[in-house]
């Protein structure tokens, strides 16, 4: 990890521009500009000196001096702006023709098209927001429920960062104490009191667990889980898919192999966001289209969080399905779904088997669907009664887990009487893992991965 990355900071000398509002027609569109050329561009477009932080009503002119539109122009001089640079906004009528023509003129005046998320990235690189706050901007835009939106706003306002920074400061204080002891090692002076430090580390671990629990709920609210329905043809996968999403999206027939491609629908059930995937029936086939659907199904299974292996309640788990179960990717939750209980009047229930949980349902009547939904929530760790306080992402959860593990190693080193150098190094690792969350430590690849998911203009 590095504290600063010069490659991405080098691009800050460019002036960037993009349409900040969604594509299509509307009442108003916003074209945003950030960089050192903003003042110059404002004069070229509006033919006047804009009053800072004031809604200036004016006409907008193209690079060939033709009148494009009239609207509101806003100018925010650095450093008191979102990106920390000069920022310019043109509020036009919501015609794609108008905004495209204006954007093209901005390119003639020296700006370039912004990359996805580049405005937020510049705000981060210019220390206006930290990395978790930048991610919260995208989370707020992408939120699928009111609670998820509230959590994202809380993170944007710094609630999550505040807790992480406080933890990090506590680790730094302990590390400074240990490193001071190293400085006095030749004088046979011991500053480190193992019992006192162990107590402080235990308090830190307890705090990490509390933050992790809330972050886990926040991540589930924001990102949800991806669930795939798989199985042999004609076991009712598509019927179950339609029942869960609440509409007839998948074609259902008695003809084997009706579903030949992957269907995916995003739903929210009791606050839990679920990306539900219906797949082609897995079986031996010589049909080229079916074979391609089967190939895509197997590839998709590497990217899901939970697999529902659907079988017929009348047949039980066949030899073919047992072999399929053993071929599934490791580390992914698998639940057996025995469908069509309406045919033999079996009651809906959840059972434990040597292969895991079995849930008996009827996609036709809806019996057992409530048990399935409850099971999905429980296995995901989602607790509808537990109020989350901020949004989070899986990378944050991973960083918190690594921090807790590093603190545990520090406690073990203290207990064993290891040298202060080893103890200090474990503390440094824990400190750095927390720094990854807020962006105290980052790589170009991490920034690229995060901001590439943003929309252009944000």
TrEMBL record:
<dbReference type="Pfam" id="PF10396">
    <property type="entry name" value="TrmE_N"/>
</dbReference>
<comment type="similarity">
    <text>Belongs to the TRAFAC class TrmE-Era-EngA-EngB-Septin-like GTPase superfamily. TrmE GTPase family.</text>
</comment>
<feature type="binding site">
    <location>
        <begin position="253"/>
        <end position="259"/>
    </location>
    <ligand>
        <name>GTP</name>
    </ligand>
</feature>
<feature type="binding site">
    <location>
        <position position="234"/>
    </location>
    <ligand>
        <name>K(+)</name>
    </ligand>
</feature>
<keyword id="KW-0378">Hydrolase</keyword>
<dbReference type="InterPro" id="IPR025867">
    <property type="entry name" value="MnmE_helical"/>
</dbReference>
<dbReference type="InterPro" id="IPR004520">
    <property type="entry name" value="GTPase_MnmE"/>
</dbReference>
<keyword id="KW-0460">Magnesium</keyword>
<dbReference type="InterPro" id="IPR018948">
    <property type="entry name" value="GTP-bd_TrmE_N"/>
</dbReference>
<dbReference type="InterPro" id="IPR027266">
    <property type="entry name" value="TrmE/GcvT-like"/>
</dbReference>
<feature type="domain" description="TrmE-type G">
    <location>
        <begin position="224"/>
        <end position="381"/>
    </location>
</feature>
<dbReference type="Pfam" id="PF12631">
    <property type="entry name" value="MnmE_helical"/>
</dbReference>
<feature type="binding site">
    <location>
        <position position="128"/>
    </location>
    <ligand>
        <name>(6S)-5-formyl-5,6,7,8-tetrahydrofolate</name>
    </ligand>
</feature>
<dbReference type="InterPro" id="IPR027417">
    <property type="entry name" value="P-loop_NTPase"/>
</dbReference>
<dbReference type="InterPro" id="IPR031168">
    <property type="entry name" value="G_TrmE"/>
</dbReference>
<dbReference type="InterPro" id="IPR005225">
    <property type="entry name" value="Small_GTP-bd"/>
</dbReference>
<dbReference type="InterPro" id="IPR027368">
    <property type="entry name" value="MnmE_dom2"/>
</dbReference>
<dbReference type="GO" id="GO:0046872">
    <property type="term" value="F:metal ion binding"/>
</dbReference>
<feature type="binding site">
    <location>
        <position position="255"/>
    </location>
    <ligand>
        <name>K(+)</name>
    </ligand>
</feature>
<protein>
    <recommendedName>
        <fullName>tRNA modification GTPase MnmE</fullName>
        <ecNumber>3.6.-.-</ecNumber>
    </recommendedName>
</protein>
<keyword id="KW-0547">Nucleotide-binding</keyword>
<dbReference type="GO" id="GO:0003924">
    <property type="term" value="F:GTPase activity"/>
</dbReference>
<feature type="binding site">
    <location>
        <position position="258"/>
    </location>
    <ligand>
        <name>K(+)</name>
    </ligand>
</feature>
<feature type="binding site">
    <location>
        <position position="238"/>
    </location>
    <ligand>
        <name>Mg(2+)</name>
    </ligand>
</feature>
<dbReference type="GO" id="GO:0030488">
    <property type="term" value="P:tRNA methylation"/>
</dbReference>
<feature type="binding site">
    <location>
        <position position="89"/>
    </location>
    <ligand>
        <name>(6S)-5-formyl-5,6,7,8-tetrahydrofolate</name>
    </ligand>
</feature>
<dbReference type="GO" id="GO:0005829">
    <property type="term" value="C:cytosol"/>
</dbReference>
<feature type="binding site">
    <location>
        <begin position="278"/>
        <end position="281"/>
    </location>
    <ligand>
        <name>GTP</name>
    </ligand>
</feature>
<keyword id="KW-0630">Potassium</keyword>
<keyword id="KW-0479">Metal-binding</keyword>
<feature type="binding site">
    <location>
        <position position="259"/>
    </location>
    <ligand>
        <name>Mg(2+)</name>
    </ligand>
</feature>
<keyword id="KW-0342">GTP-binding</keyword>
<dbReference type="GO" id="GO:0002098">
    <property type="term" value="P:tRNA wobble uridine modification"/>
</dbReference>
<comment type="subunit">
    <text>Homodimer. Heterotetramer of two MnmE and two MnmG subunits.</text>
</comment>
<comment type="function">
    <text>Exhibits a very high intrinsic GTPase hydrolysis rate. Involved in the addition of a carboxymethylaminomethyl (cmnm) group at the wobble position (U34) of certain tRNAs, forming tRNA-cmnm(5)s(2)U34.</text>
</comment>
<feature type="binding site">
    <location>
        <position position="458"/>
    </location>
    <ligand>
        <name>(6S)-5-formyl-5,6,7,8-tetrahydrofolate</name>
    </ligand>
</feature>
<keyword id="KW-0963">Cytoplasm</keyword>
<keyword id="KW-0819">tRNA processing</keyword>
<feature type="binding site">
    <location>
        <position position="253"/>
    </location>
    <ligand>
        <name>K(+)</name>
    </ligand>
</feature>
<dbReference type="Pfam" id="PF01926">
    <property type="entry name" value="MMR_HSR1"/>
</dbReference>
<feature type="binding site">
    <location>
        <begin position="234"/>
        <end position="239"/>
    </location>
    <ligand>
        <name>GTP</name>
    </ligand>
</feature>
<feature type="binding site">
    <location>
        <position position="32"/>
    </location>
    <ligand>
        <name>(6S)-5-formyl-5,6,7,8-tetrahydrofolate</name>
    </ligand>
</feature>
